[in-house]
Amino acid sequence: MGAIFTFSIFQSALELGCIYSLVALALFISFSILNIADLSTDGCFTLGCAVGAMVTMSGHPFLAFPAAMAAGVCSGFVTAFLQTKMGVPSILAGIIVNTGLYTINIAVMGFSSNINLFGCDTIFSLAKEVSETEWYGNWYKIVIVAAIVLITGVILAWFLNTRLGLSIRATGDNEYMVRASSINPVFTITVGLCAANSLTALSGAVLAQYQKSCDINLGTGMVTIALASLIIGETLIGKGGMFKKVVGVILGSCLYRFIVAIALRLSVPAECLKLVSALIVAFAIAFPYLKGQAAFYKTRRMPLGIGERNGKGGDNIC
Amino acid sequence: MLKLKMISKVFNPGTVNEKKALDHVNLELADGDFATIVGSNGAGKSTLFNAVTGSFYVDEGQIILAGEDITYRKEHIRSKEIGHLFQDPLKGSAPHMTIEENMALAYLRASTASHAYFSRISRKEKQMFREQLSLLDMGLEDRMKQPVGLLSGGQRQALTLLMATMVTPKILLLDEHTAALDPSTAQKVLELTRRIVAERRITCLMVTHNMHQALELGNRTLMMDGGRIVLDVQGEEREKMTVDDLLARFKDQAGRQLDNDRILLS
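^ inputs. structure came back:
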């Protein structure tokens, strides 16, 4: 039990945390900003993974990312179209798209339920060849993943401060205001969901190259995990500008991976991991509420203190 | 400026809840007119506003704003030219965004170019927002980076008014915008409204439940009942009118007492 944190655990938690933080950023757009629970996340993640893997397999490791993102945009567009133009409630729209994506994902993968990329060039294998030094050999994966997340995060934070970004944020913040100003909610919701799903798919594509395989069930439960990361991040950072919030979401995702790594280290069997995730999510969401409750009980149990503050002294209270 | 030709709207047609909210309403507002509207509960005042802003499309009739037929124009396109303030001060601004960001959104109406989508708030604009905020005399110009959710109701309503008139609208609709504020704040916001409307000669429609205000503010008073405009006074006739006259006229027209649970007679 000596070292709960070995170096390699720390390393892989950081790598996975960065990769999955892209999904958390996607939910940051759809769930936190647009106030829409986008349940197509699971399917979209697998879609990104499948498209990324197929393009990588055909010998274009770099093209895999824009291709996966384009696929994500399409998926997001369908979800948005269903809820803005077809009158489908937003949760249902996500579920419908998610269901449909299963077939599409299988089709993308050439009607097999998993593919592997052993022997194909990936950005990781290409980057590994750049330098032979030992330090680089240990860290090149993190460097690449962190660079991708950093670039995405900066672009996202910048985008959310442009006029279009402001309009998207207002759409989720106050629907009355949006109707009274010249913002077209159909347009902003569509752009928001397309952006969110492109990030989800990008995450899938990075993961495909990272673990050199793609499986049809890879995305299952992704929405819960991303939500946990998002909420941990928001609890960590609290209030602040867009840039600070984006950083918080990325940190939250890494922290979530550390928690999972610790759980695994404490010999929680791998089959129980989904239950552990669910517990972490439930706790992360409940935590701010419980904190408030605890503060309330504390005040209630101390009428004496209040009496003193009012200058009456404590003796007349029994 | 605004012309309503025989507009009608029935809610829940064919059900027991059928309600004729607007019944062939005719109204013509001249450029720079400032009309107040009073009426009983459910008379159709807010429905009239919603018809103009485009929350729903009217069943019959035509809405013409500045010579253009906007009857079937989409809500977000109309709102480029219409300022709308609600009774609830929380409805007019986005609470989790800063004062500056809210104002930038309102200023979006000014630009029609699509490249503006990806532009950020410029320093020049920040300066302009600051100057406009300082006119409110509420100290908001030093709180531009704070989220709007931290402001009081009166401050939020004043900000909303500023946002609605930042790009001069062709018509300003005020739906009891001071009713939810405490008396002194309400007075301040009303004073601000009067000043902005007068300075820019904005055509304005204002719903109020304060009878005194209805006669004192603006140049025209309308009274609504049962989805119709039952009284329309202006000019000399209006100047001589007292609150009692107004109530008596309502009784003549509608055949019953004015009943509005929030009416203020003083």
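Chain A has 13 helices and two strands. The beta strands of chain A are 114-116, 213-215.
thumbs up if we can close this ticket
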